[in-house]
Design brief:
CATH architecture of the domain at 5-127 and 160-184 and 248-261: 3-Layer(aba) Sandwich
Distance between the termini: 46 Å
Shape: globular
Helix content: 25-40%
Strand order of the largest sheet: 3-2-1-4-5-6-9
Structural class: alpha/beta
Largest sheet: 7 strands, parallel
Radius of gyration: 19 Å
Number of strands: 11
CATH superfamily of the domain at 5-127 and 160-184 and 248-261: NAD(P)-binding Rossmann-like Domain
Number of helices: 11
Strand content: 15-25%
Order of helices and strands: EHEEHEHEHEHEEHEEHEHHHH
Length: 278
């Protein structure tokens, strides 16, 4: 039997490294690609692409935010003979105004280009990551005991990145996922107040959530050294939560894997066991 090789672009990121781990647990041959990873890959240096793609059967792609390079990469992958490509996108990118003034044109362009590129394709559109609380941008606030965000009183059906990875692994290795767009979420929506309360109960260290008006939040981020553009982009990203759009429960995990998505309480328990807030 011929061994198939899988390439994971963004192999050190929140979803990518879990895709790598799950593929290797299945005994698959994997190249974990990033700028400084075991397989060098740089979105801004196309000379790194061909070696990464050589002999690859399937690719899991985490695009670089704001970059226009992914469509060219999909063409290169097709030329290299790649048979399957799984793209990490985002929930709501196909809904006008979903992110307010936020720019999602590059994400939509990536999806359009992948569909037209030739290989079998699958698109993942997850909501907000649960792991943003344990290893992402919310973690500093959790550790400080006060999480300040412009999410209002809205709730989000936070999705576990392990579930995103599991869907990605299934799509890149198994039949039956070609041409599918999987919108991914957790099984219930929680507000930031509820989320911080669950984390505080698990850690024994109370955490307060403070809802800031968008303009005040942008000003606060600027005071922390954020550029105006980045602060505006992050605030726009939070707006679907504040407007109640991210409370939606999506069925992508069940459609792809035949099981329920991981509950936020399970994420909290696992993160605490891993000493994420230690």
């Amino acid at each position: 039997m011929t061994t198939k090789t899988f390439l994971v672009i963004g192999g050190t990121g929140k979803t990518g490294r879990r895709v790598v781990s799950q593929l290797r647990a299945r005994g698959e041959s994997v190249r974990a690609a990033s700028r400084h990873g075991e397989q060098r890959f740089d979105w801004s240096d196309e000379s790194t692409w061909d070696a990464a793609l050589d002999g690859v059967h399937g690719v899991y792609v985490t695009p670089l935010d704001g970059s226009t390079a992914a469509p060219r990469f999909f063409e290169r992958a097709a030329t290299a003979g790649v048979e399957r490509v799984v793209l990490l996108s985002a929930r709501g990118v196909d809904v006008p105004g979903y992110y307010g003034d936020g720019d999602v044109e590059s994400m939509l362009a990536n999806e359009t280009a992948l569909r037209a590129s030739g290989p079998q394709w699958t698109i993942l559109r997850p909501g907000w990551f649960a792991q943003n609380f344990s290893e992402g941008i919310f973690r500093a606030g959790i550790l400080a005991g006060e999480l300040r965000q412009a999410a209002g009183e809205g709730a989000a059906s936070f999705v576990d990145t392990g579930d995103i990875a599991a869907v990605g692994v299934a799509a890149v290795t198994e039949d039956g996922h070609a041409g599918e767009v999987y919108e991914l979420s957790g099984p219930r929506a929680v507000t930031f107040e509820e989320a911080t309360a669950e984390i505080g109960a698990a850690t024994g260290k109370p955490v307060k959530y403070v809802a800031l008006p968008p303009a005040e939040f942008v000003e606060e981020l600027a005071g922390q050294g954020w550029s105006e553009a980045d602060a505006g982009m992050w605030t726009a990203g939070l707006s679907p939560i504040a407007r109640g759009l991210e409370a939606k429960i999506s069925d992508g995990v069940r459609r792809a894997l035949g099981r329920d998505a991981t509950d936020f309480s399970v994420f909290v328990k696992n993160a605490e066991a891993e000493n994420a807030w230690g």
